[in-house]
Known about the structure:
Layout: H1 5-39, E1 49-57, E2 67-68, E3 73-74, H2 85-99, E4 104-108, H3 117-125, H4 140-148, E5 152-154, H5 164-173, E6 178-179, E7 184-185, E8 196-201, E9 209-216, H6 221-224, H7 226-229, E10 233-234, H8 238-251, E11 256-261, H9 282-288, E12 294-297, E13 304-310, E14 317-322, E15 330-340, E16 343-354, H10 363-380, E17 383-387, E18 391-392, H11 402-417, H12 421-424, E19 428-432, E20 440-441, E21 444-447, H13 448-454, E22 460-467, H14 468-478, H15 493-496, E23 509-511, E24 514-518, E25 527-532, E26 535-536, E27 542-548, H16 549-552, E28 566-573, H17 574-585, E29 587-588, E30 598-602, E31 605-606
Parallel strand pairs: 1-4, 4-5, 5-6, 9-11, 11-12, 12-14, 17-29, 19-27, 24-30
Antiparallel strand pairs: 1-15, 2-3, 7-10, 8-9, 13-14, 15-16, 17-21, 18-20, 19-23, 22-27, 22-28, 24-25, 25-26, 30-31
Helix pairs in contact: 4-10, 8-9, 11-17
Amino acid sequence: MPVSPMNRREFVKKSAxxxxxxxxxxAAGTGTAEAADRKHRHHHKAPHTWSFSILGTTDLxxxxxxxxxxxxxxxxxxxxxxxxxxRVATLIKQQREEKGEHRVLLxxxxxxxxxxxxxxxFARVDPITGTxxxxxxxxxxxxxMNHMRYDAAALGNHEFNYGIELLRKFESQCDFPLLGANACxxxxxxxxxxxxxxxxxxxPHGPDIKVGILGxxxxxxxxxxxxxxxxxxxxxxxxxxxKKFVPRLRALGCDVVFLTDHSGLDGSSSYGDELxxxxxASNLVAEQVPGIDAILVGHTxxxxxxxxxxxxxxxxxxxLSEPYCYGKRLTVFDFDLEFHCGRWRVTNKKAQTLxxxxxxxxxxxKKLLEADHELVVKYVNTPVGTCTQDLSAAESCWKxxxxxxxxxxxxxxxxxxxxxxxxxxxxxISVAAPFSRTADIPAGDVTIRDIAGLYIYDNTLYGKKxxxxxxxxxxxYAAKYYHQVPSGTTVDTSTLTxxxxxxxxxxDTAAGVDYEIxxxxxxxxxxxxxxxxxxxxxxxxxxxxxxNNYRANGGSGYPHxxxxxxxxxxxxxxxQLMIDYVTxxxxxxxxxxxxxxxxxxxxxxxxx
Length: 608
């Protein structure tokens, strides 16, 4: 539900002054403390040096416990990682005990309320916004993070997946601010969320250390969640907004300026030239905006323990760190400061990541959220039908497997049901990506978690129109996913895909047309024998393409699709449509939908 114009104006006005209010309130308290300190200066010598730490998490994606809802078992991976804030909370307690409660701040870099079955449950099944006038529950992530005493969190792009109303409700449940200096009201262009907060590190018998924390989110929200934010919010670049707010924090007397960015640090963008702003811009912020001491990085789900960038204007080093996603790591930034010429200055800083896999889960978080967890476990284990045979996604990245045709079947059926008479006469096809190679729908009973494990994102559905020429371009773009393997060379599936740069979720296959991908050919010349119902696809032939909202709005930079005419749109999640399909039919039978319509070749010879 959109915020009314009056409420939005009031909120923006309130948000814009929040930082100043925080600073002023803190200054008033400091004045009292410093006055008391001055009385005792002749008894106590003020320290010349001090140290403190900022702890950081990112991309928690509603992982509270060390549990895999899709497998209905404790989380495991080859590296022996654990997930969940319950374990991270134990590390944070240890840091506070070791360094002192008042020498530790705790910050997150976004993507908090989406990503697990627990997140979906409290957004859609028993939403925190309430239903039919009844108040909703408190979000488990708000409960956990309040207990852990977070000082601030940046907005992630996935915060917007369930709409602004649910995000505002989550914000109201948090005891800490959600920061987004570049999440702006579409009309006023002023931050619609608090842009920054100022925290004070108390120094006995000396002036406080003022720490300014600025939050920046991802410009890609404008594309990826267009349906939720269009006309309501805009998302300028990180560099552009940091240039406005970092000087403001320095002018407010901040001794340390710390950024929490939901943006990676390699300067790349997954959406091509669809937006003028860079997706992964943390390194650019460090280079181009003077006055920053350190940046907590998020969004890209990688671990970068410590990384230094030299600012172009000042020559000063900016320290960056990105902890691994899902609570697999905790970043620790340590700062040493010296009081010199009437102010605190940073003399040394370092960052490292800690692994929580060897500590126990926080018993208090377990006590607070065990009941919520059990509700979700019961929900995801609800049977919705049966399957006639095991449907595995293990080979979905290089073979046309039946479990992917299940997704295509559901997408095409839903789009077909909502087309106009004119568009219903056009050929209908579907595109979808293999999100999880470990997904498996077993023979026998099929549960919600089996389907959720196959379709892990909360995407909704579009029907968009592409010409035959545009469709070929689209499939050529997808075929970049494969490394070139010359004819006569053995194909090794472990090295076949370019998945470290062109991730699995970026690779679309198509159903409804037949084609070959010749991996012996260079990029741009791989799609061969593209046909529809046995006839070659003509360049001017028009298709309705069933496609998820992320891709339809420009996600992953596919050509033509973002600007294509819309023939159909729905706010129903594709995953729920798949659950409904099995519930209605009672039996999932690949004989109803499976067809091999694409294959990999080398100079025309099938690879498999």
